[in-house]
Specification:
The structure is a single chain. The protein has 273 residues and is an alpha+beta fold. It is built from 3 helices and 15 strands. It has one domain. Helices cover 25% and strands 36% of the residues.
């Protein structure tokens, strides 16, 4: 006669124990996964905020390099805006009252360009002996190239202005030929060897928590900045600045929102000489 061998099976208590153990392991594993995911979200937001802040700070520094000394002013957020020379205070004694900075920029586009035989659009030097109050002879320049570059960048560009060191007068100028700049009216009261050529001012302004770059407006100190602007960075929590001599230092901070209750802030500080 054949006998069937019985095989031992799990008891109810053993099954319950196994289920409890699996539940504990699953809860621990899910908690670890949630923590890892939360850490990833925070690190990603921090990386994005840092990257965007670094890029914006680099763009700001590249623009401020071309600022003509003495023309950098801070903008006080009153109605209408008021302009004050930038000083050693970090954004002023009341830093929150200042919404941005504004400056006249030298024409770096044609200055840095070279044409045959390797000359810039404007050299920045004038021949004092050959120049007069209304006619600036600038050897080493190819001013026709300057005119072409300015017209290509902004066909409806503003007037051209000339600045001399330690003189904030924006002398209205026009290009006569390849190496002659003509000043209108009575011309310059005092001519020196160096000059800066400008055709636009720039401004960095915080509006509704976003940072905007204004450009292509009259190359004069403390003038209305017009409406031509581009968004530089969103969600700005801090934009402060100070100046001393020919050095400008600024600090910009950006918020990267993760949720309604959690934000990540990244800051960058630079000095421009």
């Amino acid at each position: 006669m054949r006998h069937k061998r019985l095989r031992p099976a799990f008891s109810m208590i053993e099954l319950v124990f196994v289920i409890v153990v699996l539940g504990i392991v699953a809860s621990i594993g899910s908690e670890m996964i949630v923590k890892i995911y939360d850490s990833y979200i925070v690190q990603r937001a921090q990386h994005r905020a840092t990257l965007k802040t670094n890029l914006a700070a680099t763009q700001i520094a590249n623009r401020l390099i071309s600022a003509i000394p003495g023309t950098v002013y801070r903008i006080k957020g009153t109605n209408p805006n008021t302009y004050e020379p930038i000083d050693s205070d970090f954004g002023g004694s009341d830093g929150n009252a200042y919404i941005g900075i504004q400056w006249v920029a030298s024409d770096t586009e044609s200055f840095n360009s070279t044409t045959s035989p390797g000359k810039p659009g404007w050299s920045g030097f004038c021949d004092i002996d050959a120049s007069t109050q209304t006619s600036i002879e600038t050897p080493g320049s190819i001013l026709t190239s300057t005119t072409t570059i300015i017209n290509n960048l902004f066909p409806s560009s503003n007037r051209i202005a000339i600045y001399f060191p330690y003189d904030l007068t924006d002398y209205n100028a026009s290009i006569t030929d390849a190496d002659t700049i003509t000043l209108t009216g009575t011309g310059a009261t005092h001519i020196v060897e160096h000059y800066k050529l400008a055709w636009s001012s720039y401004a960095l302004v915080v509006e509704d928590g976003d940072l905007y770059l204004y450009y292509n407006f009259d190359p004069s100190v403390g003038v209305s900045r017009g409406n031509t602007k581009s968004l530089l960075m969103k969600n700005i929590s801090t934009f402060k600045f100070k100046g001393g001599g020919q050095t400008i230092r600024f600090k910009v901070c950006k918020e990267e929102r993760i949720s309604e209750d959690l934000n990540i802030t990244a800051c960058k500080e630079k000095a421009v000489f």
